[in-house]
Amino acid sequence: MPPSRPRGFAASLTFFSFVVAHATTAAPRLAFVDATPGSGIVFKNLCGASAVSKGWLTESMGAGAAWLDFDRDGHLDLYLVNGSTHDRPAGRGEPNRLFRGDGHGRFTDVTEKAGVGDRGWGYGATVGDYDNDGDPDIYVTNLGANVLYRNNGDSTFTDVTATAGVGDSRWSTASVFFDADNDGDLDLYVGNYMQCDPKKVPRGGTPEAKSAYCTYKGIPVACGPLGQVPEQDTYYRNEGGGRFRDATREAGFALATPRYALGAVTGDYDNDGDTDLYVANDSVANSLWRNRGDGTFEDVGMRTLTALNGDGRPQAGMGTDFGDYDRDGWIDIVVTNFAHDLNTIYRNHEGKYFLDDSTRAGLGVTYLFLSWGTAFRDFDLDGDLDLFIANGHIYPQVDGYAMGTRYRQPNHLFVNQGAGRLSESSKALGPGFAIERSFRGAAFADYDDDGDIDVLVTAIDDAPLLLRNENVGGHWLEIRLVGKRSNRDGIGARITVAASGKTWIADRHSGGSYLSSSDPRVHFGLGATTRVSSIEVRWPSGTVDRLIDVEIDRLITIEEGSTIANADD
Amino acid sequence: MKPRFIGVLIAIAAVACHAEPAPPPSPGTSIEELRVAVAANPDDASLRRRLAIALHETRQLDEALTQFEMAAKLLPDVPHLLELAIALASVSRLDESQVYYEKILTSEPRHAVALHNLANLHFRRGQLDLAISRYHQAIAARPDYVLARFHLGQALERSGKTEEAYRTYESIVAGDPRESRDAMVLVDALYRIASIDLTMGATERAVVMLAEVVATVPEHPQAHYAYGQALLRLGQTAAADKEFETHRRLLDQQRSDSPAAMDD
């Protein structure tokens, strides 16, 4: 039956007075260079037996990276995760590598001495001081048993996986340390992907791979994730004394139907003072885990409209991040997705729900790109958050077809133009953004301590790319937190900076991006602001610290309780 | 089964693309029987075409393509070339597909379906300006080609030409669809108009539109989802929850498509 004409139709014909003029695009002041040559970072990712033929998804997902100051010398160090092949015995993959940074762009491989060269088939890494002893520990996710490295405090680590009880042996991807139950120590959430035993899952492109989920636009490809068995994520509660306990079910994280987790990030989306968790899942609904404040969680993804895109469809979630890109005091969410689809920005409406703002924000240009690592950061130091997205297709086969997308792709940087609009500007950002690889993870840090955010981007079967930010102009502030009653890292703390009548918020979060872990210091771009009137830190414990009249363009350290604010202020 | 909205579009696209579809195999004619018939009559283009379509419907794409190629070789008329071009596009051999569309357009420059399908190829490649140009040509060749108008609207949206896209969708709504498939495109055009309204903050207008869409097509999951968002914005939480619940129920009834496996 033909539809009747809508009653609102006449009104719609006169529509469009609301269309606002696009903000003037100012020429970006920043540029990025490839700082990898000469940096001392000698590394090549291995992910499967062939770089051009990927039979299973295990061979397609690449690996991540982590920035940390493992030796507490004040300079960031770099941990790179490496993979393996299905032909190699378990534990005989290429070793992960730890590079000690000197703060001036030079790195030295200290893997053997530090004892962190795990040789599992690695995917991700997260960093956190789970034992509150003042130095960062490392958790590595693998296809097979994961590994927890405890920092001994003398530039070496000990594999404490067995004692700690965190050796999830499934295919793990994203992981985050955060104080889920707010008892002062870091718990651990591990995202798991799917079952992928090559003896049971047919190799893509073979006659056995007949399922519709083994083709992509008519091209035979690796099977999944739909059609394969998803794995339940694991939540490990920190019991103290270096031990964790699987508390997935009692904390509310068990799902009737598990999802294919790839990205995870913590943040306080509803401004209620406890730490929530967002998980980007591949091809099915994403999860927004609201912290009930009692150590248990509920998935409010559907209720808050963050599970699906604006059309109500699940997407292929890869990487994710929280950030207040529209500076309204509520953190928003970005999720990177598959090619021939859009990356998604969920704009937070006062913690009640989110609306898909992707097209309006300017992400339409990402349609042909398959995206992974991502972060909201103020790369140009103009006082609002920009957006970085790492790109690279998952199927090398696409290069054999003129379908508008390629296996190796350039990365994107969207410069915030204000009013919630982002402008893809990578072509104007120097040679670093002209480089095309099949990128995967991205970890963000001011590794050269010059006040702007640099990016380490990993690439599958390839060398990583260290993008040094050559930004000129703009003021900044970096804040290192030291928890006392709260977890030592201050993960979950909310920082509010006020200056020149403006305010900025950021959480000391964990995870984010894709399979990666970023600078533990919280970074603020301040634009033309020359002096910060106040900094407030709301710690997970409830303690509030406040600093008044703070100088800019520097790193400051705030210890919990050291500048106690009057609760009535 | 794909979500109805997408399924409807694909069904419409299939109808539109296969301008002169071969008669389906008679009931009980299996692929095997068709193979035997083709083996016995290798120069019968019609038989090969029937076998190709049967293979295509069962996702045996490579073999289907071979049969389409053979049929087009035996009888290189426009319908056969069109089917071959469509089959090539379905396995992402877009360059070859384009060659056959252009071949058709050499002999019939105003072949609306070829123009539309060629525009779709450009759209898939992200060549939005080329796609928009071809959609316009298809519409010029056949002004009542509502599917071409709808896809033009999508290409314009993707290009950031939201106002033009909006007007294009309005031109569909302003038409008088005579066929049921066109009516479904009209519903989808209404949905897109409402989605743009919603994105741009014209929430009350979106609510009116979406109420019409869900009343017309109660099994339109995306419309229920958008309607819920619009109601939520207006603070009508209970009504919004009801729409989200309907959306969830409809999704649960349908297989969730992998974005990786999704058709254009």
The rounded Rg of chain B comes to: 20 Å
Helix percent of chain B reads over 70%
Low-confidence stretches of chain B: 1-24, 256-264
**Largest beta sheet of chain A, briefly?**
4 strands, antiparallel
Which of globular, elongated, flat, extended, rod-shaped describes the shape of chain B? globular
Distance between the termini of chain A: 65 Å
Number of helices of chain B: 14
Strand content of chain B: under 5%
What profile does the largest beta sheet of chain B have?
Answer: none
**Gyration radius over CA of chain A:** 22 Å
Structure description:
The complex is a heterodimer of chains A (569) and B (264). The longest helix of chain A is centred in the first third of the chain and has 5 residues, at 9-13. In chain A, the strands form ten sheets. Chain A has a four-stranded antiparallel beta sheet, with no helix packed on it. Chain A is globular. By secondary structure, chain A is an all-beta fold. Helix content of chain A is 3%, strand content 35%. Chain A contains four helices and 37 strands. Mean pLDDT of chain B is 85; it is low at 1-24 and 256-264. With 264 residues, chain B is mostly helical. Chain B has helices at residues 4-17, 31-40, 45-57, 61-74, 78-90, 94-107, 112-125, 128-141, 146-158, 162-174, 180-200, 203-216, 221-233, 237-253. In chain B, helix 2 (31-40) packs antiparallel against helix 3 (45-57) and helix 11 runs antiparallel to helix 12. Chain B is 75% helix and 0% strand. Chains A and B meet through helix 1 and strand 12 of A and helix 10, helix 11, helix 12, helix 13 and helix 14 of B.
State the gist of this model.
Chain A has 569 residues and is an all-beta fold. Chain A has four helices and 37 strands. In chain A, a hairpin with a 5-residue loop joins strand 17 and strand 18 (287-291).
